[in-house]
Specification:
Number of helices: 0
Structural class: mainly beta
Number of strands: 11
Helix content: under 10%
Oligomer: single chain
C-alpha cells in the first residue's frame, strides 16, 4: 500500500523561507508523479508544483513561480518544496500527493491523485 508523509511546516515571518519534505513508500514510483497542493481556510485546494520521476519534468503554478522550487531525491522517493519570499497569503495546509503519471487527466487537478499525505501547516505572519 502506498503511503505519503509530508513535513517541515511551521511559523515563519513575512519574507522568510521554509523547506517542506514529502516521502512516499510502499510502491515503485518510477512512473509516478508527486505533487504539492495547498488549502487555506474557506478556499479550494490549489495546485502548487509537481515532479514526474520518469524524466524529472516539473510543473508549477503561476502564483508561486520564481519563489518556490520543487526538487527530488529519487533514491529516497522524496520530494522537496523550497519556499522563499513567503507571504501571508501563502498561509495554508500544504499537502503532498502521488499517483501513476500516465493516464488521462491533469497533474494540476487534485482529483488526479490517488494517495495523499495528512498535510503540514505553513503559517506566514505579517
Amino acid at each position: 500500500q502506498v503511503q505519503v508523509a509530508e513535513f517541515g511546516g511551521g511559523l515563519v515571518q513575512d519574507g522568510g523561507s521554509l523547506r517542506l519534505s514529502c516521502a512516499a513508500s510502499g510502491g515503485t514510483f518510477r512512473d509516478y508523479v508527486m505533487g504539492w497542493f495547498r488549502q487555506a481556510p474557506g478556499k479550494a485546494r490549489e495546485f502548487v508544483q509537481a515532479l514526474r520521476w520518469s524524466d524529472g519534468n516539473t510543473y508549477y503554478a503561476d502564483s508561486v513561480k520564481g519563489r518556490f522550487t520543487i526538487s527530488g531525491d529519487n533514491a529516497k522517493n522524496t520530494v522537496y518544496l523550497q519556499m522563499n519570499s513567503l507571504k501571508p497569503e501563502d498561509t495554508a495546509v500544504y499537502y503532498c500527493a502521488t499517483t501513476y503519471a500516465y493516464r488521462t487527466g491533469s497533474y494540476y487537478d487534485p482529483s488526479y491523485y490517488d494517495y495523499w499525505g495528512q498535510g503540514t501547516q505553513v503559517t506566514v505572519s505579517s
